Amino acid sequence: MVTALVYVPAKSQENLRIGIERSIWGWREETVAKGGTLQVLNDLSEGDYLLLGRVRWITM
Prior knowledge:
Blueprint: E1 3-7, H1 13-22, H2 29-32, H3 37-43, E2 49-53
Parallel strand pairs: 1-2
């Protein structure tokens, strides 16, 4: 079983909301071509986990 973590930038929050509601997610070709993303996607199979999220920094 594989778990892949995906950072979703703040400007993509609407896409994240839609993806969660519809249980679907995708990437542009230029994104897949960078940083080993294609290898990670090729390694995923049914039953694996894909965790989508972003970091919110809170300063006090």
